[in-house]
Amino acid sequence: MNGKYVAALMTFPAREGFYPVIECTFELGIAMPDGTTPLVPGDGLRWGYWAGPPLSLLEWHALRPRDLRGSRALAKCSDGAAQALFAAATAPPKSPEKVLDVGGKMQAIVTSPEPSDTPSEALVAAIGRALPDVKHPRMVEGIAGILAVAARLAPVVTRLKSRAMPRKAAPESTLHNEDVAALAQILDHGTPWWVEKLGIQFGQQILDVSTYLFDDTSDAISTPARTVFPWDLLLTRIGEVLYRVLALGTPKPKRLELIKALELWKASTFPSNMKRIRLALLSMNVDGLDREHPDRLMTATNRYFVRHTGDTVRAIESTADGTFRVPPGAKLESATPADARFDKAAVEKTLALFAERGPVPFDVEVSKAIAKKTKLSVAAASLVWTAGYDPWLTGEKKRERFGIERDALEHAEVELKKKRLRELYAKAMPDDPADMFDGRVVAERIIKAW
Q1: Rounded to an integer, what distance in angstroms lies between the CA atom of residue 60 and that of residue 231?
Q2: Cα within 13 Å of Cα(122), Cβ side
Q3: Which residues fall within 8 angstroms of residue 352, CB to CB, at 6 or more apart?
């Protein structure tokens, strides 16, 4: 049968038809009456399937049902009872997995729930409620074992379905993580091989997500192109990228990488929809979401791009009616609206200004105005407003143009080394990108953000 040797036929209590006992590679298994669908795996039918010592095939005729009434009840298990049992089996453990990052996020120590060889009291109780006629402890244990397998494989099935569901095709992009390395630095994202193995499709993921959030009509769970690059932080920090593209202190290679990121961002539908999205931190359970499979597109009250971040989920939420909602069963930890000042027109204007005028010229009077209000040295103020210090130090030739000598640089580094300047530029970026060329406006914005 189906290329397998049929060793015997057997019946089961309360079920019709003959079940073929098939032999393959010197192992025995049981198939459904159709002869193709496996029922019991080909593991030699070890003694665990019955009480007592192993039996030869010739002795199987002596087998008797443990509990005929329970077998009949199990054969008639309804869809509702099965769903209740599955829900009980997939309930989160009392001691959830915890992740502790060690060594600058280069190593992760994971504490997992305590394993158990016996079914939990809650699961046994659920079996009793769903199948009250099943009394035999070995049958209860067997049902619990099958439920454990189902619970373990449920995330895998969810992931497979998310990849198989058809949805509107997104535009294509070949922009990879390495092409926007400067943005990774700004967003504190390390790119060692053990991180990059989770995906490098920076551009394609952004386009996949924007298509699902704003243009797709399918509500099916879906998985976007793979990368763990935290580009979703651009919702609140896109102004920083605009500032650094125009700032004189940004090294040329870094600027070119940031321009690539902006061109991709402009090609997506995010800039045109900034008023209807927010970045949220949620405590929620999403089937199949873990460190190795961290991203998912889903619809639950609104549309979401969710990313596994350890104990919580970071999500981009898109609302069609202007109302943000927490998904059922989730807890909102924090939420920040996207910076709607910088829409598609602002991104286009920034890129056009740089193409036409280049970076903002240096003006020592801006440095002096900032130094006066912030109590920084003029050298430190120059590095701040030209974006020439964190996360990279602008080159020696530019420092000479800024009038920063070696001694002044050392003093400025003492002033700035404990300051985190990166998010400052998102606040300091003028609403109108053209105002970056107005020294007075830039000084006021930096002072206010400081």
Answers
A1: 62
A2: 10
A3: none
Q: Is 3 helix (H, G, I), strand (E, B) or coil?
A: coil
Amino acid letter for position 236:
T
Q: How far lies 112's CA from each of 97, 98, 101, 195, 291, in Å?
A: 4, 7, 14, 21, 14
Secondary structure (DSSP) of 195-258: HHTT-B-HHHHHHHHHIIIII----S-B--S-B---GGGHHHHHHHHHHHHH-TTS-HHHHHHH
Terminal-to-terminal C-alpha distance of the chain: 77
32: its two tokens:
């459904």
Distances (CA, A) of 223 to 95, 167, 181, 220: 28, 10, 24, 10
DSSP 42: S
- With tokens 């619990």, the residue in question is 144
What whole-number distance in Å separates Cα of residue 244 and Cα of residue 364? 18
The length of the chain is 450
Q: What is the pLDDT along the chain (450 residues), one digit of tens a residue?
A: 556 678 788 888 777 888 888 776 556 777 888 777 776 654 444 444 455 556 677 777 777 778 888 888 888 889 999 999 998 887 765 555 555 554 444 455 555 555 566 778 888 899 999 999 998 888 888 888 888 888 888 877 777 766 655 556 778 899 999 999 999 999 999 888 888 888 899 999 999 999 999 986 777 778 888 999 999 999 999 999 999 999 999 999 999 999 999 999 999 999 999 999 999 999 988 877 888 888 989 888 899 999 998 888 999 999 999 999 999 889 999 999 999 999 999 999 999 999 999 999 999 999 999 999 999 999 989 999 999 888 888 888 888 888 888 888 888 888 888 788 878 999 999 999 999 999 999 999 999 998
Neighbouring C-beta atoms of residue 181, cutoff 10 Å: 14
Is pTM beyond 0.85? Reply is no
The amino acid sitting at 290 is D
Phi, then psi, of 394 in degrees rounded to 5: -60, 155
Task: From 418, 359, 368, select the one nearest 390 (Cα to Cα).
Answer: 418
Place of tokens 């079996």: 127
